[in-house]
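quick q for whoever's on today - can somebody do inverse folding on this one?? i tried earlier but teh output was garbage lol. tokens:
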């Protein structure tokens, strides 16, 4: 009874034509029918005034609410984490001024750093929607959640989830191979649409991507092209690859480097080489080989052959050493890049260098990161007589299982890292090595759970409709913990993870992965 408190019942309708942020109308009443009729009438007037038919129509019915003080909102960042407060807010008991959770989070109105509500952004949103501004939050507000339904372009209605992090998106009991493949393809095609004529890439609300993120995006597009080749993807990939290659500067010794704001970084060189080598692999174009060799020569110049250490940063002006170390993952990027160059050329120089770097990494504790997993996946393609490589790969995965399983957010590296490790685990079995002490059952359970959790970052219409330009974010992956923004690294991690999941899905099931997270196989 009276789930909206003093207002009784409250209903919201959101209508969106795909080009502009959704119009949201709501109504309240003593009965659900009265609230529904009030919201529907308000939305009918809004649609007639707006002049364009909705592409998506969403209904939200308040089913739970609670009064709370404005001061209680100050702790949302600490209690719920960035982007994690999944409640709408009414500024008065009658629900006359009220907002859905999706409105507040996509517009950045909840302030997770300082706590509470960003009054400036709230008033900007009120102005945008034709409502009067407020001077301050009231002493008491009402937080609420809704049961929702979306009617899409095909006029079918899908229910939306009420559960924790999945709140507000369409319901899935599990992610199968077909769903994962579609998610990866959507992500790849989204990235392809962001490639400009000159080959640079600009994601929603940002500037042209820097070298490492451009390389990430290029690899994401290649995933989609492998699965479903198309002229649109091919054109975007060619332009993006040409742009990346055009950013390389060459020395008289035929070494290639990316000049990045006065620096030369191991990250730029390694990721650029990995992306261009994958272009060569997918296209069969030998034209990428000289560029990749030059980048490989540049990487060799960073390598200390006695210690296996790679210098992380040089001064671009004179190639002098600037920083010996900047980020641990960069070493694995370097090892992976050199290994991929060996795969292109079969020149033992590159494999020797890759092993030298990898052997030095083995002296440290596994980092539990995706690049360690990627490098060892690449290394064990060619070096299968080194049991220590396999063991290190499994330790890298096992040490992260608990943290990945318990992660509540949409951070996307976990799925990719575990599936790269799983591929190495399968290769270890094929090579006849013992995997005693490693728990594949737990890994498979976490993979299943993480495939579901990362769905919460995918921008289905029911959430994309609240962005300022919905069609420009539809089909992308956002990072709720980073202000619901879209970034190339996160996109690539999601695309790679779901693509690996789709490719290995039947094998994962055969090895015992539960179809539904948390359920034991019968």
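ok took a stab at it. sequence:
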């Amino acid at each position: 009874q009276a789930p909206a408190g003093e207002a009784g019942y409250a209903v919201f309708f959101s209508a969106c034509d795909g080009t502009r942020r959704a119009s949201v109308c709501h109504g309240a009443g003593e009965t659900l029918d009265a609230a529904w009729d009030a919201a529907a009438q308000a939305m009918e007037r809004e649609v007639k005034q707006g002049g364009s038919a909705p592409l998506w129509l969403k209904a939200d019915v308040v089913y739970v609410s609670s009064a709370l003080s404005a001061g209680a909102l100050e702790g949302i960042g600490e209690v719920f984490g960035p982007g994690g407060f999944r409640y709408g807010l009414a500024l008065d008991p009658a629900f006359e001024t009220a907002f859905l959770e999706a409105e507040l989070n996509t517009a950045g109105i909840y302030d997770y750093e300082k706590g509470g509500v960003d009054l400036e952004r709230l008033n900007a949103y009120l102005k945008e929607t034709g409502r009067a501004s407020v001077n301050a939050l009231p002493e008491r507000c009402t937080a609420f959640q809704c049961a929702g339904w979306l009617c899409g372009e095909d006029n079918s209605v899908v229910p939306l989830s009420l559960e924790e992090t999945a709140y507000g998106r369409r319901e899935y009991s599990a992610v199968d191979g077909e769903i994962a493949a579609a998610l990866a393809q959507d992500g790849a095609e989204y990235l392809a649409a962001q490639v400009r004529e000159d080959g640079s890439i600009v994601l929603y609300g940002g500037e042209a991507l820097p070298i490492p993120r451009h390389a990430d995006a290029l690899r994401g597009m290649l995933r989609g092209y492998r699965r479903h080749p198309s002229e649109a993807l091919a054109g975007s990939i060619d332009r993006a690859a040409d742009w990346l290659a055009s950013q390389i500067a060459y020395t008289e010794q035929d070494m290639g480097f990316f000049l990045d704001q006065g620096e030369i970084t191991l990250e730029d060189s390694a990721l650029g080489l990995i992306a261009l080598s994958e272009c060569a692999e997918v296209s069969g174009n030998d034209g990428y080989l000289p560029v990749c060799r030059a980048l490989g020569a540049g990487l060799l110049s960073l390598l200390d052959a006695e210690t296996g250490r790679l210098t992380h940063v040089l001064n671009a002006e004179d190639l002098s050493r600037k920083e010996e170390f900047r980020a641990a993952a960069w070493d694995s990027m370097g090892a992976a890049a050199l290994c991929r160059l060996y795969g292109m050329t079969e020149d033992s120089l590159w494999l020797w260098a890759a092993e030298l770097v990898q052997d030095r990494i083995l002296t440290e504790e596994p980092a539990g990161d995706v690049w360690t997993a990627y490098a060892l996946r690449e290394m064990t393609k060619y070096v299968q007589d080194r049991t220590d490589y396999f063991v290190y790969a499994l330790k890298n995965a096992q040490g992260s299982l608990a943290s990945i399983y318990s992660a509540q957010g949409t951070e996307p590296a976990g799925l990719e890292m575990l599936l790269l490790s799983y591929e190495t685990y399968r290769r270890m079995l094929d090579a006849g090595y013992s995997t005693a002490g490693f728990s594949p059952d737990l890994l498979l359970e976490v993979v299943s759970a993480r495939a579901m959790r990362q769905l919460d970052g995918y921008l289905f219409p029911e959430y994309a409709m609240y962005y300022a330009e919905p069609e420009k974010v539809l089909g992308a992956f956002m990072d709720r913990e980073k202000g619901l923004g879209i970034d190339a690294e996160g996109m690539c991690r999601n695309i790679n993870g779901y693509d690996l999941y789709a490719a290995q899905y039947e094998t994962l099931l055969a090895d015992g992965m539960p179809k539904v997270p948390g359920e034991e196989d019968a």
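fwiw Residues 221 and 307 are 36 Å apart (CA to CA). also The chain has a mean pLDDT of 95. so keep that in mind when u check it
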